[in-house]
Amino acid sequence: MALLEVSHLDVRFALRQGEVRALRDVSFTLDRGERLGIVGESGAGKSVAAFTILNLIAKPGYIAGGSILFEGRDLTRLKPRALQNIRGNQISMIFQDPMMTLNPVLTVGEQMIECLKAHRRIRSREAREIALNKLRQVYIPSPEKRLDQYPHELSGGMRQRIIIAIALLLDPDIIVADEPTTALDVTIQAEIMSLLLELCEKHNVALILITHDLGVVSQVTQRTLVMYAGRVIEQGPTREIINDAQHPYTQGLINALPQMASPGSRLNQIPGAMPPLAKTPPGCAFHPRCGFSTDAAGQRRRDCREDVPAFVTSGNCHVACHMVRELVERDPVEPGEAS
Prior knowledge:
This protein is α/β, with parallel strands linked by helices. The chain has a domain at 4-90 and 172-228: P-loop containing nucleotide triphosphate hydrolases (Rossmann fold, 3-Layer(aba) Sandwich), CATH 3.40.50.300. The chain has helices at residues 46-53, 80-86, 98-101, 108-119, 124-137, 143-147, 156-168, 186-203, 214-220, 238-243, 248-255, 302-306, 322-330, and strands at residues 4-15, 18-30, 35-39, 61-70, 73-74, 91-94, 174-178, 206-211, 223-228, 231-237, 311-314, 317-320. The strands form two sheets. Strands 6-7-8-3-9-10-12-11 form an eight-stranded mixed β-sheet, sandwiched between helices. A four-stranded antiparallel β-sheet has the order 2-1-4-5, with helices on one face. A hairpin with a 2-residue loop joins strand 11 and strand 12 (317-320). It is globular and about 75 Å long. 37% of the residues are buried.
């Protein structure tokens, strides 16, 4: 049994102008110690998926359907007290901006000790020793000094290391990292991702990494989900998706990487923009931007315009695309041929 199993998750926001579906039929699993990446443009639903796992969706948002099974328990049906025992204790989250996460009027040590006392019956001295140990694990220099400092006295990279240390305080089974390097410069980003990978491997912690950066995903994760307009449109082994993307949207994301353009030429880009969730087009949501959705006469294919594509297996990946389905049905892979 998978450590985490998300099945047919449907999240909606009840707005004055009508109900908006932020997640549509999202399903995936996560095994113990596995590293999973969720990628897509802004508005794809990545962060909503991350927040929903811990049931942190604020009103007017709500879970309209589906299940989130953690060690066999459905998190969508737990009472607040039971869910509070899981948050931070068994499933931790790293947010985008450490300055928004850390309390500016409490020292680092006060915040770490408070977190430990919220979940364990422990003395302050023992809690401080655990906090010091975690700071050492994330390579914070002079940890004794840092415990008595306030967040504003630390650099951005140092603050993010402290957030990671707090996430590891209670030895969780899963860490959900929501774009943990967004506010950092490139060199610090690489250090933080390398640290996160090292800690997950060392402690056998499962990781869900939310990002728009396919370069980071290729270096850190073992399996990848690609999201578009609230749906998962491709999922499979990270190496296979990076080397041989099947969905036109995934191909567009990879082609848009700076290293894919010739020196001195314009960067590649996907035409158009992600549709607003309130105005998601029928059929395949990507079809207005997809170069493969037009027929020989230049008209949009009817199935792309009208029918939501079902998942089809291509190699070791699952892809929701009418074009891929036709290719697979025309030239099926014999058993044993898929790598």
